[in-house]
Amino acid sequence: MYENEKLENGEEGATAPGATRAVTRRRFLVLLGAAAGTVMAGAALPGCTGGSEADGGSDAPGEADSSAKTVTVTDFDGKEVVIPADAQHIGALLGNSYPQVLFLGGASRTTYRFMTDTTWIDAICPDVEAYGIEYYKNAREPNIEDLMQKGVDLVFYWGGLDDQVKKMNDAGIPVVVSNPSVTDFKNQDDWRDLIEREIMLYADALGDEAVAKARDWLAYVDEKVAAVSAKTKSLSGSDVKRVYYIRKQDDGLQCFAASSYPKILVQIAGGTLVSGDVDTQGSGFTEVNMEQVIDWDPEYVFTGWLDSVDGILANEQWAPVTAIKNGEVHLTPCSLNTTFWDYGTEAPLDMLYIAKTIHPELFSEIDMEREIKEFYQRFYNVKLTDEQARFMLERKGPDGGPLTA
Question: Which of 100, 187, 239, 267 is least surrounded by Cβ atoms within 10 Å, i.e. has the fewest?
């Protein structure tokens, strides 16, 4: 679930509409699909099961058929993929696919996960150990024999790896490409449509309970965006803060740019991403030099995937930057699943965090510890303590220790 990420290091991916059901603000689409009444399998464990407070069932797919054994979804390659209506051995091999599956209640049906490497996932979520979910290290070159031996009956995967997809398909394993080769959204409306397409692809693949959960999350996103936008939409001139958002690399010179989620999150929060007009050819990030950063002179610096800003603060080349001078370099919080907030289900939390940081006077009412606790209770069925919420904000593990093992 990320802006293309150019197949780097097993990071995120973005996603597409499901053929069974996809609804956007701009239009209501009823797509032909299968299987109403798909049931999420497995008894709920006490946390991280994706339990939702949303009530009411989801709409039936375009062609309701309670006896159906399969569902057809349209993935990001534009392919109609026939998958089991109740897949029981999911290979979440795309970087951010396991957090999506976990979020939507599919942990009990997952065999492999990829790139969920924080200490939170094992300490707070019993699912990984209880369900025997294994960490798959070489997802870009999957061992087909191994997948078959484990009975994997659905794989979420990258776009652009056609040879690997073909190998899995030839072995009878359905593959849903759940990120596009490139992303090219231009504005907030495009971003909103993309995140809906993204979450609904996973939801349609996982069944009706997941669809209800996804819609509840989308309603939450709309609520938080509206609340923040009401205070920032009239800002202009120097009130719109200059923000530089580091993706990773200790030198701070890999940053988010055009077609990135942070560009939109910063914009909604009342800032402008100084690198936001740099063409990334659909990847969402780019590498720049120090001279360019100094020329942009951001007032705030946020880090996406770094666990420390010591290297930046100790680097004299960064000294002329206003954010450094004013002590406005911020490690963004971690999530329950991954080491970043800038992409995925926690993106609205990142928006709130940015807004409160760059406009503290406008958003003094935002209590990030409370927001974190309410979010994870509502969407993950996890009750975090005040201390744990604070540790998450401080980018620490659940016991205050290291974030990664």
Answer: 187
Give residue 91's pLDDT band: very low, low, confident or very high (50, 70, 90): very high
Distance between CA atoms of residues 234 and 24, nearest Å: 26
Q: How far apart are CA 363 and CA 376, in angstroms?
A: 21
Task: Write out the DSSP string of 203-233.
Answer: HHHH-HHHHHHHHHHHHHHHHHHHHHHHHHT
Model confidence at 8, pLDDT cuts 50, 70, 90, reads very low
Tell whether domain 233-393 is in CATH 3.40.50.1980: yes
What is the per-residue pLDDT across 133-146, written as a single tens digit (0 to 9) for each? Answer: 888 888 889 999 99
Q: Which residue has the tokens 């800038």?
A: 342
Strands (E), 249-299: 254-256, 271-273, 285-287
The domain spans of the chain are: 5-220, 233-393
The secondary structure of the chain in percent helix, strand, coil, rounded to multiples of 5, reads 35, 15, 50
**DSSP reduced 3-state for 130:** helix
The secondary structure element, H or E, covering residue 155 is strand 154-157
Do domains 5-220 and 233-393 share one topology? The answer is: yes
Pairing of strands 80-84, 70-74: antiparallel
How many Å apart are CA 155 and CA 248, to the nearest integer?
28
Instruction: State the chain's mean pLDDT as an integer.
Output: 81
Q: Tokens at residue 39, please? A: 């049931």
